[in-house]
Amino acid sequence: MHSYIEALTTRYTTKKFDPDRRLDAETVQAVKDILQLSPSSTNSQPWHFVIAGTDEGRQRVAKAAHGVYAFNASKICDASHVVVLCTKTDIDTEYTTQVLEQEERDGRFPSEETKAANRKGREFFAMLHRNELQDAFHWMEKQTFIALGNLLSGAAHLGIHACPMEGFDHEVLEKELGLTEKGYKPSVIVALGFSAADDFNAVTPKSRWPQDRIITEI
Protein backbone atom coordinates (compact mmCIF):
# COMPACT_ATOMS: atom_id res chain seq x y z
CA MET A 1 0.00 0.00 0.00
CA HIS A 2 1.24 3.50 -0.81
CA SER A 3 2.57 5.15 2.37
CA TYR A 4 0.28 8.17 1.97
CA ILE A 5 -2.81 5.98 1.54
CA GLU A 6 -1.70 3.89 4.50
CA ALA A 7 -1.48 7.06 6.62
CA LEU A 8 -5.02 8.03 5.58
CA THR A 9 -6.27 4.51 6.26
CA THR A 10 -4.85 4.38 9.77
CA ARG A 11 -5.58 7.98 10.84
CA TYR A 12 -8.54 8.70 13.11
CA THR A 13 -9.95 11.60 15.07
CA THR A 14 -8.33 11.48 18.48
CA LYS A 15 -10.87 11.73 21.28
CA LYS A 16 -8.42 11.66 24.20
CA PHE A 17 -4.85 12.97 24.21
CA ASP A 18 -1.89 11.94 26.35
CA PRO A 19 -1.13 15.13 28.35
CA ASP A 20 2.46 14.03 29.02
CA ARG A 21 3.58 13.75 25.40
CA ARG A 22 4.63 16.79 23.39
CA LEU A 23 5.54 17.47 19.79
CA ASP A 24 9.22 18.18 19.26
CA ALA A 25 10.42 21.39 17.64
CA GLU A 26 11.04 19.73 14.28
CA THR A 27 7.47 18.43 14.11
CA VAL A 28 6.01 21.79 15.13
CA GLN A 29 7.99 23.40 12.31
CA ALA A 30 6.63 20.77 9.91
CA VAL A 31 3.09 21.68 11.01
CA LYS A 32 3.84 25.35 10.25
CA ASP A 33 5.17 24.36 6.83
CA ILE A 34 2.03 22.33 6.10
CA LEU A 35 -0.17 25.30 6.96
CA GLN A 36 1.93 27.73 4.92
CA LEU A 37 1.95 25.46 1.86
CA SER A 38 -1.81 24.85 1.81
CA PRO A 39 -3.44 25.61 -1.55
CA SER A 40 -6.23 28.15 -2.00
CA SER A 41 -8.38 29.54 -4.81
CA THR A 42 -6.41 32.12 -6.84
CA ASN A 43 -3.67 31.76 -4.20
CA SER A 44 -5.76 34.10 -2.05
CA GLN A 45 -4.57 32.59 1.26
CA PRO A 46 -7.36 34.31 3.24
CA TRP A 47 -6.35 32.89 6.58
CA HIS A 48 -4.36 33.23 9.76
CA PHE A 49 -3.29 30.44 12.11
CA VAL A 50 -2.91 30.79 15.86
CA ILE A 51 -0.81 28.01 17.41
CA ALA A 52 -1.08 27.44 21.15
CA GLY A 53 1.84 25.34 22.38
CA THR A 54 1.97 26.37 26.04
CA ASP A 55 -0.33 25.56 28.95
CA GLU A 56 -1.36 29.21 29.08
CA GLY A 57 -2.07 29.31 25.35
CA ARG A 58 -4.19 26.17 25.42
CA GLN A 59 -6.11 27.44 28.44
CA ARG A 60 -6.90 30.63 26.52
CA VAL A 61 -8.30 28.62 23.61
CA ALA A 62 -10.17 26.34 26.01
CA LYS A 63 -12.17 29.31 27.30
CA ALA A 64 -14.29 28.87 24.17
CA ALA A 65 -15.08 25.25 25.13
CA HIS A 66 -17.68 25.92 27.78
CA GLY A 67 -21.35 25.17 28.29
CA VAL A 68 -22.62 22.91 25.52
CA TYR A 69 -19.06 22.77 24.12
CA ALA A 70 -17.43 21.65 27.38
CA PHE A 71 -16.84 18.17 25.96
CA ASN A 72 -14.02 19.64 23.85
CA ALA A 73 -12.17 21.33 26.73
CA SER A 74 -10.05 18.32 27.72
CA LYS A 75 -8.97 17.73 24.13
CA ILE A 76 -7.71 21.30 23.91
CA CYS A 77 -5.99 21.27 27.30
CA ASP A 78 -4.41 17.81 27.04
CA ALA A 79 -3.14 18.14 23.46
CA SER A 80 0.46 19.12 22.80
CA HIS A 81 -0.43 21.98 20.45
CA VAL A 82 -3.69 23.53 19.31
CA VAL A 83 -4.17 25.34 16.01
CA VAL A 84 -6.97 27.87 15.56
CA LEU A 85 -7.64 28.26 11.84
CA CYS A 86 -9.05 31.73 11.20
CA THR A 87 -10.62 33.26 8.09
CA LYS A 88 -10.43 36.85 6.83
CA THR A 89 -13.70 38.70 7.21
CA ASP A 90 -13.24 40.73 4.01
CA ILE A 91 -11.18 40.76 0.85
CA ASP A 92 -10.44 43.99 -0.99
CA THR A 93 -8.06 45.35 -3.60
CA GLU A 94 -5.52 46.37 -0.96
CA TYR A 95 -5.26 42.75 0.19
CA THR A 96 -5.15 41.20 -3.29
CA THR A 97 -2.41 43.69 -4.18
CA GLN A 98 -0.41 42.52 -1.17
CA VAL A 99 -0.73 38.93 -2.42
CA LEU A 100 0.43 40.06 -5.86
CA GLU A 101 3.44 41.84 -4.39
CA GLN A 102 4.44 38.74 -2.44
CA GLU A 103 4.15 36.63 -5.59
CA GLU A 104 6.38 39.11 -7.39
CA ARG A 105 8.99 38.90 -4.62
CA ASP A 106 8.86 35.12 -5.00
CA GLY A 107 9.58 35.41 -8.72
CA ARG A 108 6.29 34.13 -10.12
CA PHE A 109 6.00 36.64 -12.96
CA PRO A 110 8.27 36.30 -16.01
CA SER A 111 6.74 39.47 -17.51
CA GLU A 112 4.54 42.45 -16.72
CA GLU A 113 1.84 40.87 -18.91
CA THR A 114 1.81 37.77 -16.71
CA LYS A 115 1.59 39.92 -13.59
CA ALA A 116 -1.29 41.96 -15.03
CA ALA A 117 -3.19 38.80 -16.01
CA ASN A 118 -2.70 37.39 -12.53
CA ARG A 119 -4.00 40.58 -10.93
CA LYS A 120 -7.03 40.65 -13.23
CA GLY A 121 -7.94 37.03 -12.54
CA ARG A 122 -7.73 37.29 -8.77
CA GLU A 123 -9.59 40.59 -8.70
CA PHE A 124 -12.34 39.10 -10.84
CA PHE A 125 -13.04 36.25 -8.42
CA ALA A 126 -12.58 38.34 -5.28
CA MET A 127 -14.99 41.00 -6.47
CA LEU A 128 -17.40 38.39 -7.87
CA HIS A 129 -17.79 36.86 -4.43
CA ARG A 130 -17.76 40.20 -2.65
CA ASN A 131 -20.14 42.20 -4.83
CA GLU A 132 -22.23 40.00 -7.10
CA LEU A 133 -22.57 36.75 -5.15
CA GLN A 134 -22.12 38.48 -1.78
CA ASP A 135 -20.64 35.34 -0.25
CA ALA A 136 -17.04 36.50 0.17
CA PHE A 137 -16.63 35.19 3.72
CA HIS A 138 -18.15 31.83 2.81
CA TRP A 139 -15.85 31.59 -0.21
CA MET A 140 -12.81 32.45 1.89
CA GLU A 141 -13.78 30.05 4.65
CA LYS A 142 -13.89 27.25 2.08
CA GLN A 143 -10.22 27.98 1.48
CA THR A 144 -9.55 27.70 5.21
CA PHE A 145 -11.16 24.27 5.19
CA ILE A 146 -8.80 23.25 2.39
CA ALA A 147 -6.01 24.15 4.83
CA LEU A 148 -7.80 22.05 7.45
CA GLY A 149 -7.81 19.01 5.17
CA ASN A 150 -4.17 19.59 4.36
CA LEU A 151 -3.32 19.79 8.07
CA LEU A 152 -5.20 16.58 8.97
CA SER A 153 -3.59 14.63 6.14
CA GLY A 154 -0.20 16.13 6.91
CA ALA A 155 -0.49 15.23 10.60
CA ALA A 156 -1.23 11.62 9.66
CA HIS A 157 1.80 11.59 7.38
CA LEU A 158 3.94 12.96 10.26
CA GLY A 159 2.68 10.22 12.56
CA ILE A 160 0.91 12.53 14.99
CA HIS A 161 -2.71 12.55 16.07
CA ALA A 162 -5.31 15.25 15.48
CA CYS A 163 -8.83 16.24 16.43
CA PRO A 164 -10.69 18.93 14.42
CA MET A 165 -13.36 20.83 16.34
CA GLU A 166 -16.11 23.16 15.19
CA GLY A 167 -17.84 22.94 18.56
CA PHE A 168 -16.71 26.07 20.40
CA ASP A 169 -18.01 29.51 21.31
CA HIS A 170 -16.86 31.64 18.36
CA GLU A 171 -17.61 34.93 20.10
CA VAL A 172 -15.55 34.02 23.16
CA LEU A 173 -12.58 32.92 21.05
CA GLU A 174 -12.78 36.04 18.85
CA LYS A 175 -12.56 38.20 21.95
CA GLU A 176 -9.88 36.14 23.69
CA LEU A 177 -7.54 36.18 20.67
CA GLY A 178 -8.40 39.71 19.55
CA LEU A 179 -9.43 38.48 16.12
CA THR A 180 -12.14 40.99 15.25
CA GLU A 181 -9.82 43.99 15.24
CA LYS A 182 -7.36 41.99 13.13
CA GLY A 183 -10.03 41.23 10.54
CA TYR A 184 -10.49 37.51 11.19
CA LYS A 185 -13.04 35.03 12.51
CA PRO A 186 -12.19 31.61 14.00
CA SER A 187 -13.41 28.80 11.74
CA VAL A 188 -12.13 25.57 13.27
CA ILE A 189 -9.80 24.35 16.02
CA VAL A 190 -7.40 21.42 15.59
CA ALA A 191 -5.78 19.73 18.58
CA LEU A 192 -2.48 17.97 17.82
CA GLY A 193 -0.46 15.52 19.88
CA PHE A 194 -0.52 11.85 20.75
CA SER A 195 -3.47 9.65 21.57
CA ALA A 196 -3.93 8.44 25.15
CA ALA A 197 -3.69 4.70 25.79
CA ASP A 198 -7.42 4.54 26.58
CA ASP A 199 -8.64 6.57 23.59
CA PHE A 200 -11.56 4.45 22.42
CA ASN A 201 -11.46 5.83 18.90
CA ALA A 202 -7.97 4.44 18.36
CA VAL A 203 -9.38 0.90 18.21
CA THR A 204 -12.72 1.67 16.61
CA PRO A 205 -12.88 0.45 12.99
CA LYS A 206 -12.93 3.17 10.33
CA SER A 207 -16.22 3.49 8.45
CA ARG A 208 -16.64 5.06 5.02
CA TRP A 209 -19.07 4.65 2.14
CA PRO A 210 -17.83 2.09 -0.39
CA GLN A 211 -16.20 3.62 -3.46
CA ASP A 212 -18.88 2.37 -5.85
CA ARG A 213 -21.41 4.52 -3.94
CA ILE A 214 -19.42 7.75 -3.92
CA ILE A 215 -17.40 7.54 -7.16
CA THR A 216 -18.71 7.47 -10.72
CA GLU A 217 -16.22 6.91 -13.53
CA ILE A 218 -17.20 8.23 -16.95
Summarize the structure.
47% of the residues lie in helices and 13% in strands. The chain is α+β, with helices and mostly antiparallel strands and 218 residues long.
Core attributes:
globular, four-stranded antiparallel sheet, alpha+beta, single chain, 9 helices
Structure explained in plain terms:
The protein has helices at 3-10, 25-36, 55-62, 73-78, 93-105, 112-132, 136-158, 170-177, 211-214; strands spanning 47-52, 81-88, 161-165, 184-193. The model has no long low-confidence stretch (mean pLDDT 97). A four-stranded antiparallel β-sheet has the order 1-2-4-3, sandwiched between helices. It is globular and about 60 Å long. With 218 residues, the protein is α+β, with helices and mostly antiparallel strands. It contains nine helices and four strands; from the N terminus they run H-H-E-H-H-E-H-H-H-E-H-E-H. It starts with a helix and ends with a helix.
Query: Average pLDDT value?
Result: 97
Please provide the count of β strands. 4
Low-confidence parts lasting 5 or more residues at pLDDT below 50? Answer: none
Spatial sequence of strands, sheet with the most strands: 1-2-4-3
Question: Major sheet: size, sense and barrel closure?
Answer: 4 strands, antiparallel
Strand and helix order: HHEHHEHHHEHEH
Rg (CA only): 19 Å
Oligomer: single chain
Overall form: globular
- Classification by helices and strands: alpha+beta
Number of helices: 9
**Helix amount:** 40-55%
The first-to-last residue Cα distance is: 26 Å
